[in-house]
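S.,

Sequence below, as promised.
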Amino acid sequence: MSSTISKASKATSLALVQALIAGTKKHFPNGSFTLGNTAYTTASLVELFQSLADAIAASDAAHASAKDAVTASRGAKAKVGPVILAYKRWLLSTFGNATQQLADFGVPPPKARTPRTGEQNAAAAAKRKATRLARGTVGSKKKLAVKGGVTGVVVTPITSSGSSSSATPPEAASKPTAAVVAPATAVTAGPK
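The prediction came back faster than expected:
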């Protein structure tokens, strides 16, 4: 039975134990049982089952109160956390590097920044250059020099006859039209 209780949910286990208690009281009010080489009376068996039911109920109550406590803790942390962070920043700006005063508040002094070596600077510059090259980024002056080139575009002027009765349907207006170019003929004036 213990393997059944451990695998079942708490609610199912509690319901089973309560049903066992009720059934035992109803059907065997003055019975005696020998289970696993141990003798039980109805009263001792009900008392044993009730101890498990009480433990499950106490566990559920503790679990619920723990959830409530965790929720309350998270709410308080969300409310107070930003204030603590701002106060620590204020303390650091007020006391600077005064380690004793900061230690009174439990705030560690800011770490001194270690200067980079020449090798680290050279490596950082090389990495920046390689990144710009890989991304294809250029400066503002080089961007101004870049112009788009378009070739092979023929512009055909649209002339209208002045009347609005020969309107072009929207489908035809959105489609590109090919320009028809007539060969130019030379006109010469002959003798008169």
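The helical segments are 2-7, 10-27, 42-95, 99-104, 118-135, 140-145, 170-174.

Coffee later?
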